[in-house]
Amino acid sequence: MTRPSVRLLAWATLVGTFVLNLQGTLVRATGSGDGCGPNWPLCHGNVVPVDPGFSTLMEYGHRQLTIAVGLLGLVLLVQAVRHRRRHPGVLAAVLVAAAFFAAQALVGRITVVWELTGDSADPLRALILPTHLVNSFSQLAALALAVLYAGPRAPGRWRMRERAGTAGILLVSAVAFYGLVFTGGISALGDLYAPADSVAEGAALDFSPDAPWPARVRLTHPVLAMVLAFVLLGGAAAVPGLRRTWRVTRLAAWLGGVYLLQLVVGTWNLLALAPLPLSALHQALAMVAFALFAVLAAVALGGGDEGSMSSAAPERAGRAPAADQAD
C-alpha cells in the first residue's frame, strides 16, 4: 500500500470517527441512549431489533456505525503494522487510537448495562459521560496524528528537551483542554440535575447549597474555556517555538480561529438553553479544535518545516522542485 493509500485510509477512519462521535451527541441529546434497553451488544435481546421505534433506531444505528468504524480502524491497524518501517509514526498513533477505541466500547457498555442513559439522573452518569467524551476526543486526536504522520512532511522525533518552553505551554494547554472536555460532558447533562427555564434561574440553582454536585461543577466549563483561550494565546505570543515556522503559524491560526468560533457558539448555546443544532455544532467545533491542537503539538515539537518566517518563503521558492521530489 502506497503512502497516499495509507493516508487516505487514515482520513477515512478519522472522518468516520468524527461522524460517530457527533452521532453519539445526537443519541444523548434525544434521550435515545436507552433505545436498546439494558442490553449490549444485543438490542432488546436481538441481533436486529424487531419493530423499532425512534429511540431504538437511533441507538442501534449508533452501534452499527461503531462496528463499521471499528472495522475500518482494524484495516488501518493492519496496514500500519505492515508498513511500520515506512510509517513508524502512523503505527504509534493508530495503536493509541485502538486503545482508546477499546476503552470507549467498554465505557459504552457500562453506560448501557448500568442504565445510565435516557432520563437517568444518577450522579455516576456525570462521571461516565465525561469519561466517554475524553476517550472519544483522544481517539480522534490520535487518528488526526495518523493522518499527519502518513503525509509527505511527517514530523520527526519530538524534541522535548530542546523545546522545553514549547512543551511546557502545550502540556498546560493539553491539561486545560482535557478539563474543558470533561466539564463539557457534565455541562451537557445539566438539565437532568438542575433544570431551568432561563440562564439566570440555572445560575441560581447552580450556586444553591442544595444543588447536586454535577450542577455546581458545570459552572467550571465556561471558566475553563476562557482560561484555555488565554493559555493558547499567551503561549503563542510568549514562546518563539510556537511561531517559528510557516507550518506551525498556519496551524496555530486555524486552531485560534476554530477555538474562537467555538467560544461564540458555546456562549450562544448557553444563552439559548442548549438547543440540539447548537449543541451539535458546539461539539463538532470542539472536536475539530482538539484534533488541530494535537497536530499543532506534533509539528511544533517534531519539526518538519524548520525555516523561519522571514526566510521560509524565499527558501521554499528556490527549492520547490527538490522538495517535491524528496516527498
From TrEMBL:
Report the protein name in the record. Answer: Heme A synthase
Region (Disordered), start-end ranges: 308-327
The way this protein sits in the membrane is described as: Multi-pass membrane protein
Q: Name one GO cellular component term.
A: membrane
InterPro entries from the UniProt entry: COX15/CtaA_fam (IPR003780), COX15/CtaA_HemeA_synthase (IPR050450)
Query: Where found, per UniProt?
Result: Membrane
Q: Keyword Transmembrane on this protein?
A: yes
Q: Name one GO molecular function term.
A: metal ion binding
Q: Where is the composition biased (Low complexity)?
A: 312-327
TM stretches of this protein: 60-78, 90-112, 132-152, 164-189, 219-239, 251-274, 280-301
**Species annotation:** Egibacter rhizosphaerae
UniProt-listed PANTHER family: HEME A SYNTHASE
Pathway involvement of the protein, from the record: Porphyrin-containing compound metabolism
Q: Which residues form the signal peptide?
A: none
- Could you give a single Gene Ontology term from the biological process aspect? heme A biosynthetic process
The answer, when asked if ATP-binding is one of the entry's keywords, is: no
Q: Which UniProt keywords apply?
A: Cell membrane, Disulfide bond, Heme biosynthesis, Iron, Membrane, Metal-binding, Oxidoreductase, Transmembrane, Transmembrane helix
